[in-house]
Amino acid sequence: MALETTALPIYPASASATDDSAPATSLIHDDWYPAMRSDRLRGGKLATAMLLGIPLVLGRREDGRLFALRDSCPHRGIPLSCGWFDGRQVTCKYHGWGFEPVGGQCLEIPSLTSKDRLDPTKIYAGAFLCEERDGHAWVFVPRPGRGRLRDSEDLPPVPETPKFGTRFRSAHLTADLPCNVDHGIIGLMDPAHGPFVHQAWWWRSKASIHEKEKRFEPIPEGFRMSAHAPSGNSAPYKLLGVYGEPITTTIDFVLPNRRYETIRCGEKWFSSLTTVTPTTASQCRIDVVAAWNVFYHVPLVTTIAKFFGNRFVRQDQETMIQQAEGLKHNPSLMLIDDADRPAKWYFALKQARLAGSAGSHPMSGPVTLRWRS
Ligand code: FES
Ligand SMILES: [Fe+2]
Predict the structure, then answer these.
(1) How far from each other are the two terminal CA atoms of the chain, in whole angstroms?
(2) Is the CB of 78 under 6 A from ligand 1?
(3) How far apart, in whole angstroms, are the C-alpha atoms of residue 349 and residue 357?
(4) Distance in angstroms (rounded) separating the CA atoms of residues 31 and 258
């Protein structure tokens, strides 16, 4: 299998992305979220991440297995990331308690004497299930009070970018967004911002705006923009036309935060999974992992794809940084039909999931939406 994974630069969080003045929202627990790129976890290094307001410390055991612990010692709360990791055990820097990092079990308490009755192995640091997919460390974030989870537990599968063959290239992008996860997600599914935010000679111009009609259908915990011939005014799709076969695109949104886009053109395909992950209740991060076999043999294709992908995500990021300035003052907002209908579905699906009625769906069947973009 020829798999080439290339990192894109991580944009430094802007000043406004690090303060927490953006309005907060409710968060969906009991699901998988990407914590960080897994290539940062090697050689006995510990790295920190924040998911849903929970500080985490991650690492890779010497047998290759990833782990994620709450970054807080169960003894007196100092971050475990301040301590040491020898490939097998995380040792707290304050009093030297040692923890097995995958399950969190305490293995030793150096201050105990032979007279002590305390059994260290009854003590656990907070441990999260952690799996590697597409170069991300994915962490299952249980609802508060759910208790310790085991590998054997019946959990949803770890999300992954769909691939349609074994030979492909891939790349990823990431950007911090200074807004809560809802604004990040509706920004992701909003069709009307394209001609304004993503104006560029290689993408599309404001003058190319025209009426569109797309069919949507309900899928479990989400909705699908049904397979369609993609927008004629996008340069990347025009490029795919060189293969001379019909091109179809399918875009799925699935709770809690996932957008899958698949473009197929005969044997050629491009596929991406974009997630918007709440780092806290008021901040989020967008991650894109794309895989493709189109132009597989063209030299520099990954570099070119990264350049354009980078520009594209940065345009969204810059716009959301500006939007965050406005949102700080808690303005009242509106969602209009039809362009914002997917955002309305998202809010209804999220509400149903939070209310414990994940089966109920805001769409009773296929719907056609119309907008100009
Ligand atoms: S605070 Fe960690 S061992 Fe005491
Ligand atoms: Fe965008």
Answers:
(1) 39
(2) yes
(3) 9
(4) 11
